[in-house]
Amino acid sequence: MNERLEAIRKAAAQDWERIKDRVELEMARVRHMGRKSELNELLKGLKERAEEERKHIGPQLQNLRRELEEGFDRAIRAVSSTGERLSNIDVTAPGRRRTRGHVHPLTQASIRINDIFASMGFQILEGPEVETPFHNFDALNIPADHPARAMMDTFWVKGDEPLLMRTHTSPMQIRYLQKHQPPLRIIVPGRVYRNEATDATHEFQFHQIEGLMVSRQGDHAVSLANLKGVLLHFFRTYFEDEHMQVRFNASYFPFTEPSVEVFIQGTKGRLKGKWIEVAGAGMVHQNVFKAVGYVAGEFQGFAFGMALERVVMLKHRIDDIRLFQGGDIRFLKQF
Question: CA torsion angle for 77, 83, 86, 88 (degrees, to 10)?
Fold first, then answer.
């Protein structure tokens, strides 16, 4: 008997849940609770059972009937409510188009740049934006009295331990070298901060792409020629200009020796026929290797850094860096 009652309960519950039409619901009610329903036949058959059985089965049948009636009432109310809502809708009115989101141009560029370097075997890393002076300056051969610190004035975090907003993504070089041995190739994209005035070409926060490739000294040691080859392939691929050229001009950075400024010249767009400086680079200074615990003279590698906003501005002929953070949807939708 218990199995028959459970089967009736389950079948009715499925219909109350499934059926969304008033006419079909009424047909289901007749099927489950009408004069010819199985439940009604069981109720009529009670008089033929012994008194003890009637006392035991009767309440179960009455409870089941009450449960089915309550379920039917809920289903009817739900259908009626839906019908009322639909009746208030003008089905002939044109639909409303939902506004779709848009990937920011800097995000688009970052994804593309990461893919290019990944195709050359570089590992993509991320690092903390709040750094220690050791990782941001000292280990990169920029001691406290070095003039280069004035060029990287940043924002300091109040607290017991001196912390600062990183001025470049180079600190991740130090963190990675401390835990890994060459050969290695890494790219570190991320947001950086510098306490400087904001204008069409400068922001107090921007995005940098840091690259590092290190190997042991020997016949196949990393050299400036490798650096030029990597950057040439990157710029030609990113700017979609197979005839683009790369030139190095001598420069100075505390954490590289020799150091170079990287210039590119393209065959189309803003870069056509012009040499434009886009990055700083050089061979990793041996003092940097010493700071991470390497034996001086045993390893050799190159490092480079460029601003993401700068290469995006060159590619898309954008004249004001502030547009990236301005939130003007007319600007963002162009990309």
Answer: -90
- Which is it for strands 123-124 and 184-193: parallel, antiparallel or unpaired? parallel
C-alpha to C-alpha distance for 141 and 293, rounded to whole angstroms: 14
Region at 191 (left for phi over 0; alpha for psi -120 to 50; beta for the rest): beta
The answer on pLDDT for 138 being more than 60 is yes
pLDDT at 153: 77
206 neighbors 309 (Cβ within 8 angstroms): yes
Which numeric CATH code is attached to 105-332? 3.30.930.10
Q: What global pTM score does this model have? A: 0.68
User: What are 267-270's contacts with CB under 8 Å, separation 24+?
Assistant: 267/241, 267/243, 268/241, 269/239, 269/314, 269/315, 269/317, 270/314, 270/317
SS3 145: coil
Query: pLDDT tens across 49-85, in order?
Result: 777 777 778 788 788 888 888 888 888 777 766 554 5
Instruction: Please give the backbone phi and psi of residue 202, each rounded to the nearest 5 degrees, phi first.
Output: -135, 145
